[in-house]
């Protein structure tokens, strides 16, 4: 019997739901190109950095380019179109962290170049333009397509060591929810409407120990709350993480389903127009859509 191809969103989560991967891509989006640039600012071991760069090249998110330094040929890494396309995920992640995670040192503001204002981010539908929050959309799973449940069986990657503490990369709340595959998988299950321990365990084929651990952590973080024995629901903070998940699904559809031909395992539909959700992130000050390169981080003074 041939193993079925892993679904698009399962693949996307398997690749991106990893703290180091997200931090490496975030730095690349801010202009880091060379090995030393990541090593010196991320407090990451050589083994981990090399492995992550290799897997990002293999997955087509980074490509290597030669350059010469001191008479020697070296390689630098550039975001491909596919890699650069995670800008929406990074922007949605920043917005959730900024607005939902209390912290002593505030995250830098992001300024929308078009209007010059420190911007908040609204999630809208790319087809009809109307707002597309969790209550405006429906999530469907495609029966029989291996997605999250397959992912849970893969070997999890763990982030060891301390994360860098500069204000750009410290997104501890977001990394708790999307920085590892199992956490992101459990959050995805909650956002698709699964509410009980047994329903999530059945859907994900995840070990009860791992599931208990992630659910307990999400309750501590205020992302989920218990509503009875073995029953959970998303809090407002949890519901507000929907754009992060929607950007992951959108990216996975475009690159894994669209370009790679993976089966669709998850679909988010916009109720108002019925279209499959293509996320459009809109500036809450001027109402214009963001595009890649239209935001710049501003360090707090
Ligand atoms: Zn729509
Ligand atoms: Zn604006």
UniProtKB/TrEMBL annotation:
**Molecular functions per Gene Ontology:** DNA binding
Q: Does the keyword Transcription regulation apply?
A: yes
Q: Which InterPro entries match?
A: HTH_HxlR, WH-like_DNA-bd_sf, WH_DNA-bd_sf
Residue numbers spanned by region Disordered: 142-165
Recorded coiled-coil stretches: none
Where in the numbering of this chain does the HTH hxlR-type domain appear?
7-105, 163-260
- State the UniProt keywords alphabetically: DNA-binding, Transcription, Transcription regulation
SUPFAM superfamilies, from UniProt? Answer: Winged helix' DNA-binding domain
PANTHER family hit by this protein: TRANSCRIPTIONAL REGULATOR, MARR FAMILY, TRANSCRIPTIONAL REGULATORY PROTEIN
Q: What name has this protein been given in UniProt?
A: HxlR-like helix-turn-helix protein
Q: Which organism is it from?
A: Pseudonocardia autotrophica (Amycolata autotrophica)
